[in-house]
Specification:
This protein is mostly beta strands. About 5% of the residues lie in helices and about 25% in strands. The chain is globular.
Length: about 325
């Protein structure tokens, strides 16, 4: 399931640093003087074939339409999503039944690479984007996650958690463990060091099959954590630190508390669907649930629900 959300700012909790519900303050690991390198070499013969045009699933109409079929929610923006059924860019990537992809520019070359969580073996697979529609799997020393045990049914999320200009990784695994892989290399040559302390508060909460995503939910300039898991709710952990030294606490004012995400291990993601340039508040909160419903909540005074309407997509 995917979740797209615009929320009202959440006030920072009054949890003291010594509170059992607070994670330790994170201090970024100093960068080594000699940076490791990850520069996979292309074979001179490794020339991608010309990309074929996408083939799409049949649709009743090619005209754009509001995804939520409600003018009040779309604010005049039209969205249409078409399923690519042939010649898509990920056809050669096979992660099995529990594949959990995350996309980001891992090697700093201006395009999106793929990090893939898989069911068994503890691996995180890395596919470098070599050309439009052409991804090459990198292994051993060419995979910056080689030697890291990500657990079973791993679910990675990519974000710059310490504001140093490169991508870090947060990984959830089926047993409830959530780990932080800090990028101590660089934007172009990533190298990851495992840190179990930053998200210990999340691991200790005991969620089964956690699937993290990170975004500035409360618009205070740092990244918060939204967690899907094997339940019908989404968990929310507020970052009460800052952009360079994150610190997470369980937030009792969870803005996702009223959303029913189903029990099939929900996997949220946050994005600016209405193209207003921010995840900052609107009069509505939006999300798409695993039950293929769009939930709309109109907020009344003080953030109370004045109206709620569920619509089939």
């Amino acid at each position: 399931m995917s979740c797209i959300l615009a929320t009202l700012p959440t006030p920072a909790p009054t949890t003291s640093p010594g509170s059992p519900t607070a994670s330790p303050v994170f201090a970024p690991t100093p960068k080594p003087t000699q940076q490791p390198t990850l520069r996979p070499t292309r074979s001179p013969d490794a020339t991608p074939a010309p990309a074929l045009p996408y083939e799409y699933a049949p649709t009743d109409s090619a005209a754009p339409h509001c995804r939520f079929r409600d003018a009040d929610v779309c604010w005049g923006n039209a969205h249409r999503f078409l399923e690519v059924v042939a010649h898509g860019p990920f056809e050669e990537i096979d992660g099995g039944a529990y594949a959990a992809p995350a996309l980001g520019d891992l090697d700093g070359d201006g395009d999106l690479d793929v990090v893939l969580g898989v069911e068994a073996g503890g691996e995180l697979l890395y596919f470098e984007n070599l050309a439009p529609g052409w991804f090459a799997r990198r292994t051993q020393d060419a995979n910056p996650f080689d030697g890291i045990d990500a657990g079973s049914k791993s679910a990675p999320a990519l974000a710059d958690l310490d504001a140093d200009g490169d991508l870090d990784v947060v990984v959830g695994s089926y047993d409830g463990t959530v780990i932080f892989l800090e990028n101590t290399g660089s934007r172009e040559a990533p190298a990851f060091v495992q840190n179990d302390a930053l998200f210990k508060i999340v691991t200790d909460a005991g969620y089964t099959h956690p699937k993290p995503t990170l975004a500035d939910v409360d618009a205070d300039g740092d990244l918060d954590l939204v967690l899907g898991h094997l339940d019908d709710t989404l968990a929310y952990f507020l970052n009460t630190g800052n952009a360079t030294a994150p610190r997470f606490v369980a937030d009792a004012t969870n803005p996702f508390a009223s959303l029913d995400s189903g029990r099939d291990s929900s996997a949220p993601t946050l994005a600016d669907l209405d193209s207003d340039g921010t995840l900052a508040p609107r009069p509505y909160r939006l999300a798409a649930s695993a039950t293929a419903r769009a939930h709309r909540r109109r907020l009344g005074p003080g953030g109370r629900d004045a109206e709620r309407k569920d619509e089939l997509l």
